[in-house]
Amino acid sequence: MNHAIPQPLWSRVWHTVREEGLGSFWLKSLDALGYRRIYLLRRPLAEPILDCPTTLPVEVDWLTLEKVQDYLVFRPDASGHTVTQQLLKGDRCLVARHEDRIVGAVWGSSTRLNTERSLGRDLPLAAGEAYQFDAYTLPEVRGMGIAPALSVAWLRHLRDEACVDAIRLTFPWNEAALRSHAKAGYRVTAVVHCLGLGPWRYVFPLQQITP
Questions:
Q1: Which residues contact 27 (CB under 8 A, 6 or more apart)?
Q2: How do residues 131-150 score in pLDDT, each as one tens digit?
Q3: CATH number of 19-208: 1.20.1250.20, 3.40.630.30, 2.110.10.10, 3.40.50.2300?
Q4: Is this model's pTM higher than 0.85 or not?
């Protein structure tokens, strides 16, 4: 039986610094120690929502309970029970299909900031706000405009529901996601600081960013 040789720590550190930069390395190091710094992005829905065409033909539609298995093929790391429960709670998932296969998806909620994985607990949303989260595109079709197109389709749906603002949370080192969100009109408006020790979490007051 062949066993993979573990990559030395110095090699993993060097790879992170080379691929993502020194700033990303330090932020991820602090994250591992329990401190998290996350950007809050806001998208006023009164502003024009411009088209974001894709270079891969896709069909955009809502994920239904009957199609959860399709989502699990797309995200084999996901739990079918968790996905089903999120849909039953009222969370929604917009998916992009190419040749009847899900290639991209984004989740959203109009009732809560689903930040259990990033901040350790959910946070309430203000009236008129909606939250987008857990966006994912298959690696082989990234860079084809699928994530911005999904975001734009969602924003238009929220506008039709008389929503006022859409918000997202993104780690500062995730530059690809920040570029994708910017294409859909999102701007960084605040920074969330969180300190954790085991199960204990403290979320500091928002640090607003002046335009």
A1: 37, 171, 172, 173
A2: 999 999 999 999 999 999 99
A3: 3.40.630.30
A4: no
